[in-house]
């Protein structure tokens, strides 16, 4: 195919919720089975042979990235393009990548090192087949409760029907130009972007949902590192 597929990892944050004693640096650099989590994540993306380059956006003052030994370093580009928010980092890194508007970009969380090769392949195949952006996600399996605070305690306000509810994951795959324009529009109009799909939805698009897997969980809390080490 004429258009390229690139991957983009926004890695400009510190992951405060995942901090534990002895690990004060950004969580993406904490080791899992002796290897920084970010490196595991890069490896997962490089498993797909059609991804021409992985672009990583880090904070301008990041002092850790130079110590990371990346696999297939010729397919990995580091940009000090971190911004004030995830959306800013994605936008800055997308611009720094110099990718063409018609290329595809897979935006993936640094804290999702458990991405399975079959899930990644399914997302890429589905988006290319339908020429339409999409994301990995999983249907909500449990009963969902909406909470309110009552005298300092979380209590149930109501039960939310889970039919049609999905938990968003990454990668999220879109045409470079379409995603760039959506992020620029959302920023100009003060819309809070929670993930790339939300920016696309804001601009009137309806991204595809492709079923992911539990292993593609986002490492968020200290205990998640042990669970991810088991899966990896």
| Low-confidence blocks of residues | 15-21
Helix content: 25-40%
Number of helices: 6
CATH class: Alpha Beta
How would you name the CATH homologous superfamily? Spore Coat Polysaccharide Biosynthesis Protein SpsA, Chain A
User: What is the end-to-end distance?
Assistant: 32 Å
Q: What is the CATH T-level topology?
A: Spore Coat Polysaccharide Biosynthesis Protein SpsA, Chain A
Average pLDDT score: 92
Q: List the helices and strands in order.
A: EEEHEEHEHEEEEHHEH
Q: Numbering strands along the chain, what is their spatial order in the largest sheet?
A: 5-4-1-6-10-7-11
Strand fraction equals 25-35%
Radius of gyration: 18 Å
Q: Give the number of domains.
A: 1
Multimeric state? single chain
SS-derived structural category: alpha/beta
CATH architecture: Alpha-Beta Complex
**DSSP E strands, number:** 11
Keywords: Isoprene biosynthesis, Nucleotidyltransferase, Transferase
Pfam family, one: IspD
Protein name: 2-C-methyl-D-erythritol 4-phosphate cytidylyltransferase
Catalytic activity: 2-C-methyl-D-erythritol 4-phosphate + CTP + H(+) = 4-CDP-2-C-methyl-D-erythritol + diphosphate
